[in-house]
Design a protein that fits this description.
GO terms for molecular function: diguanylate cyclase activity. There is one protein chain. By secondary structure, this protein is of the alpha+beta class. The chain has 2 domains: 169 residues, no CATH class; 146 residues, Alpha-Beta Plaits (2-Layer Sandwich), CATH 3.30.70.270. The protein is 63% helix and 9% strand. Strands 2-3-1-4-5 form a 5-stranded mixed β-sheet, with helices on both faces.
Length: 342
């Protein structure tokens, strides 16, 4: 998404801590230390302090209750408040201008480059309002250029570091959740996806769990060598991925020669998927051992089970029957027995 917030938890803490720190600071420096200034200005600064405190507390305690738009306008609102306070206190010195770093860093950490550029532009304009109003022309120009350049460079550097960190994290996450040999998901990713997909299962939104074993895989390794065995596993993984027909799915290697597929499909569609897999494997050329044979068990929620544990047990039982029946075949799980009272 073009306007996606990267981290609600981190953004909420960043806003909350700033607001809760800025509220008493603003009250002390803008109200308590300014007695004698016009009463409307003191009231405005006092009300601003209260608003900052309330918003900060809301962000800390109930960030999910804040509207989505709030998190996107935070840097602009923050820069606007800082400009208003600088104008109200007639303070164009460099110290108060450092508060502009907060909205800039917020945008650089949690929003995209367009927001960063917009925040820099607003900071530049806001500081210009203060500097050219309360400083001499030459000094105001120098300070305005310095602030604008410093904020722009800070935004570029922080955004660059954040994007580099995102790329590194994506690589680490991929390594942690994928099988290095076949490129499909590993057991850890499979378990997490099973829980996620099973949370949205119903008669109109079924979930098929398909368990696959490569028949006589040890014989392939012993006869043709591990390199051919690895190639056979990659062939099966490619067939499992390629047969999904754009359905929501996950292919995982659970270990050794055992694979599993999660597929949004009813029983008939799951059987058709399995047949497509067999066709793809059978049409494979270039394997010294020939196309590997597959034993497959199929279970579908909610037809065969409701809970994830029961779904796995049903698919495992179907796979066991496929092996016991002579291997190289597919078996559908049995429908659960419904007891009738009386």
């Amino acid at each position: 998404m073009a306007h996606q917030l990267r981290d609600l938890h981190g953004a909420a803490r960043a806003v909350a801590y700033l607001m809760l720190a800025a509220a008493p600071y603003n009250f002390v420096t803008g109200v308590l230390m300014k007695f004698g200034d016009p009463l409307p200005e003191l009231i405005a600064l006092g009300v601003t302090s209260v608003v900052l405190f309330v918003v900060g507390l809301a962000c800390l305690r109930r960030p999910a209750a804040m509207p989505r738009l709030f998190w996107l306008i935070v840097p602009f609102a923050g820069a606007g408040v800082i400009t208003a306070l600088n104008v109200a206190t007639r303070d164009a010195t460099m110290g108060p201008q450092l508060f502009y770093l907060w909205p800039l860093l917020y945008a650089a950490m949690f929003l995209n480059r367009r927001f960063i550029a917009g925040t820099v532009a607003q900071i530049s304009a806001g500081h210009a309002i203060t500097a050219f109003q309360y400083q001499e022309g030459g000094q105001a120009l120098l300070d305005w250029i310095a602030i604008t350049v410093a904020m722009a460079m800070t935004g570029v550097v922080v955004a660059g570091l954040r994007e580099r960190n995102d790329r590194l994290r994506a690589v680490l996450e991929a390594q942690a959740t994928s099988d290095s040999l076949t490129g499909v998901a590993n057991r850890r990713a499979f378990d997490a996806e099973l829980d996620r997909m099973a949370g949205d299962v119903g008669p109109d939104h079924p979930l098929a769990l398909i368990m696959i074993d490569v028949d006589h895989f040890k014989t392939i390794n012993d006869t043709w060598g591990h390199a051919v065995g690895d190639l056979a596993l990659r062939t099966v993984a490619d067939a499992l991925r390629g047969a999904a027909e754009d359905r929501e799915n996950m292919v995982a290697r659970l270990g050794g020669d055992e694979f599993a597929v999660l597929l949004r499909a009813a029983p008939y569609a799951a059987v058709r998927y399995v047949e497509h897999v067999r066709t793809r494997v059978r049409d494979t050329t270039g394997l010294p051992c020939g196309p590997p044979s597959l034993s497959i068990g199929i279970a579908v929620a909610p037809d065969h089970a409701q809970a994830t544990d029961d779904l796995q047990k049903a698919a495992d039982a179907a796979l066991y029957r496929a092996k016991e029946g002579g291997r190289g075949r597919s078996m559908m799980a049995h429908l659960p027995v419904v007891s009738r009272a009386g």
